[in-house]
Every structure is written in C-alpha cells, then in structure tokens.
Design a protein that fits this description.
The strands form two sheets. The protein has a four-stranded antiparallel β-sheet, with helices on both faces. Strands 5-7-6 form a three-stranded antiparallel β-sheet. With about 160 residues, the protein is α+β, with helices and mostly antiparallel strands. It starts with 6 loop residues before the first strand and ends with a strand.
C-alpha cells in the first residue's frame, strides 16, 4: 500500500489542517502519559506556530489542501510523525517514515534516531515493525515558552546505510 501513498512538500495554506492533525494525534497519544504542564501548553495554536516556523521541512500525504499525515526530519532525527485518526492503517505512516528515512539518508545520516514517549505503545510497535530498535530510555528535555519540560522517552535508532 505504500506505493499508492504520495508524500509531498506541505503548502502554507495547509498549516491549519496539519496543525489539527498534530493536535488531535498528539492529544490521543500523549495527553495521559506526558507531564501535565506540557499537555497544557500544547494547544492547537502552538502547533500552528511551530509548523509555520518549520514548513520548509514538513512533508505530507493527502491531496493538496487535505493532508492526512505529516513527517518532519531535523538534523539526524525523525523529529515528528503524525497521522490523522481516519488515515491510520492505510499505509500513510509507512509512506511517511520511508520518506523521512530517505531524506535523512540523503543528508548523510547513517544512524537516525527518534524519541517515543514512554508508554506510547502503539507508536513503539509501529517503529519496531518499520525496522527501528529501542536503544533505551533516556531523559528528554523540551524547551517551551515557559521553560524546559523534562520527561523520559524511548530512544529508537535505525541504521540507514
């Protein structure tokens, strides 16, 4: 099914729709397992703002104007990967992770990594199915407008070439 899913660059006009996917999927996967202060500041507007700052590295699936999922890579990290609830199980996530891995490899990254919140078992199963391995639990710090928020994540890694 991956072959039938097209991954493309995101358009500025799609920021609200991508932000909604990010917000909904983040809430679904993280609101009950991450610190409450992080959940409080992860508003729909915060996702819109972050996307606006990173739009040049956002890749999406779905028809123009109707994104179904997105992936962001930064440096050697598969930084964000989220899929709308109605697109889960359709091959969208597999297409996005494959595209992200190719972008990382094309940037010369040999060993890529990603952070998966401890307790996000659905995502962990997907990453393992996609050939990533859990390299252990590490402390993770996220800078927010209100200061750093720290929590544990599973660090997943994959050798790309």
């Amino acid at each position: 099914m991956i072959d039938s899913v097209t991954v493309r660059n995101a358009y500025p006009a799609e920021i609200p729709a991508i932000a909604q996917i990010w917000y909904d999927a983040w809430q679904d996967a993280h609101v009950n397992i991450l610190p409450a202060e992080l959940a409080r500041i992860r508003t729909l507007e915060s996702f819109r703002s972050r996307l606006g700052e990173m739009l040049d590295i956002v890749r999406v699936t779905g028809k123009p104007g109707l994104p179904t999922g997105f992936c962001i890579v930064k440096d050697d990290e598969l930084f964000q990967l989220f899929v709308s609830a109605d697109a889960r199980g359709t091959g969208v996530a597999a297409a996005l992770i494959s595209d992200g891995e190719k972008r990382l490899a094309n940037n010369g990254v040999r060993i890529a990594w990603l952070a998966c919140a401890v307790g996000n078992d659905r995502a962990a199963r997907f990453y393992e199915k996609s050939g990533w391995h859990n390299a252990g639990t590490v402390s993770h710090s996220i800078e927010t407008p209100e200061g750093a928020v720290e929590f544990d994540v599973w660090r997943y890694e994959k050798v790309l070439f």
